[in-house]
Write a structure and sequence with these properties.
Length: 323
């Protein structure tokens, strides 16, 4: 039996991964590699199109760039290590790397929640205060809102993760997860009152930073819907609401798997279900965001088509075709 200590320099974490799927490592590697490539390509396309097309230089799309950058960073925090686990059975991770991954994952998770709030606020100003919108949502204000979301979210996990790093661990600690999730690592620590307290504290903070942003988004959309209902023409109401549908779908894809992930931790269910619920959460939203904004947003869809057309038909050829 390994002894417990808080000496970080000698600690290694062993990521158990998916115990029930040990015979499908190659298939898992192929599937998650495909997902990762789709996430990278989809979000890079969104970023590139918005940067290149001046018609998309609006607050809504500035925040969408932030969301796409976030999704790339978020998945890069976990998926490359997963791929190494599947391909080379590289399941160990050093103490410092584990806590860096933990901080990045949870910090970026909170960042997404706060960015969704900022995007909801942008839609609120655009629909509820259309005449004041250009003067209110200036470039400086947009940068301040985005920066506030990033900085606040990246500061929130610091105290809890710092305290978790000071718990006692075995020289090789088995973590029943595919990455260094906070609750999974705390549950793998040597049993004591501090570990139990960290479990409750971590769950409480996670619930708080999920529920409060969701409440703010909901409050924004209550005001938005009330404003839309005051529009006389049906066409005007549909046009106003259509600018919000992409954001609402993204909010839904973000909070649905996160609710399942939280419930799975509080229920007496197998470890594989805990792990899989987190996999769905960490991959589904970054995978669907580019699809949602490409298919549901007319401006982005048009810009993507225009960019593809320019690649297929260079400027000289287009001049001949139309001239």
């Amino acid at each position: 039996m390994e002894s417990c200590s808080s000496n970080a320099s000698t600690k290694v974490f062993f990521l158990v991964g998916f115990p029930a799927l040990q015979d499908f490592q190659t298939l898992l590697f192929v599937v998650f590699l495909l997902f990762y490539l789709l996430i990278l390509v989809g979000n890079v396309v969104i970023i590139t199109v918005i940067v290149v097309d001046r018609a998309l230089h609006k607050p809504m799309y500035f925040f969408l760039i932030n969301l796409s950058v976030l999704d790339v960073l978020f998945t890069t925090t976990t998926i490359p290590k997963m791929l190494a686990m599947f391909l080379a059975n590289a399941k160990t991770i050093s103490f410092r790397s584990c806590f860096l991954q933990m901080y990045s994952f949870h910090g970026l998770t909170v960042t997404e929640a706060l960015l969704l709030v900022v995007m909801a606020y942008d839609r609120y100003e655009a629909i509820c205060n259309p005449l004041r919108y250009p003067a209110k949502m200036t470039r400086r204000v947009n940068i301040q809102l985005a920066a506030s979301a990033w900085i606040t979210a990246l500061l929130i996990p610091v105290p809890v993760i710092t305290q978790t790093s000071q718990l006692a661990y075995r020289d090789t600690t088995r973590v029943h997860h595919y990455f260094c999730d906070h609750l999974a690592v705390v549950q793998a620590a040597c049993p004591n009152f501090s570990a139990d307290f960290q479990t409750s504290l971590g769950f409480s903070i996670a619930m708080t930073v999920s529920v409060i942003p969701l409440w703010l988004v909901t409050l924004s959309y209550v005001h938005i819907i009330l404003s839309i209902l005051k529009i006389n023409s049906k066409e005007g109401r549909m046009k106003a609401f259509s600018t919000c549908t992409s954001h609402l779908l993204v909010v839904g894809t973000y909070y649905s798997p996160i609710a399942v992930a939280y419930m799975s931790y509080r229920a007496d269910i197998p470890d594989d279900v805990h792990v899989m619920s987190n996999v769905v959460f960490s991959i589904l939203t970054p995978l669907l965001n580019p699809i949602i904004y490409t298919l549901r947003n007319k401006d982005v869809k048009s810009a993507v088509k225009k960019s593809i057309f320019r690649k297929i038909f260079p400027l000289s050829k287009r001049t001949n075709l139309f001239g």
